[in-house]
Amino acid sequence: MLWAITGPILGFSDTWQLIINTSTTIITFLMVFIIQNTQNRDNVAMNIKQDAIMKKLGITSKDLIDAEDESDQKLERRKRNIQKKASKPRK
Questions:
Q1: Is the dihedral of CA 84, 86, 87, 91 positive or negative?
Q2: Which of 1, 22, 35, 47 is most buried, most CB within 10 Å of its CB?
Q3: Please, which pLDDT band fits residue 62 given cuts at 50, 70 and 90?
Q4: What is the DSSP secondary structure assignment for residue 1, as one 8-state letter?
Q5: 3-state class (DSSP) for residue 91
Q6: What percent of the chain has pLDDT above 90?
Q7: DSSP track, 25-61
Q8: Which residues does 6 contact at the CB level (< 8 Å), separation at least 6?
Q9: Are 7 and 16 in contact (CB under 8 A)?
Q10: What are the helix and strand counts (H, E) for the chain?
Q11: pTM confidence score
């Protein structure tokens, strides 16, 4: 709206374009930080909930509790191992 209103008034000058481009860049930059902050808070909340569930279920394996600190390769190996165990028929 602001772009459409101010463009004709200021004659779509170079200064006007610079101000509009700078403003949109700053707004985009700030929105990235807001989204990242929200995702980080959500991730922390999810970890707290998972820890509470693991405690309630009696899962005390330190490897699982500290899984968020592991490398991507180690997590992928752990995932494959758990999937293999889950797909085996129970006796």
A1: positive
A2: 47
A3: confident
A4: -
A5: coil
A6: 29
A7: HHHHHHHHHHHHHHHHHHHHHHHHHHHHHHHHHT---
A8: 16, 20
A9: yes
A10: 4, 0
A11: 0.57
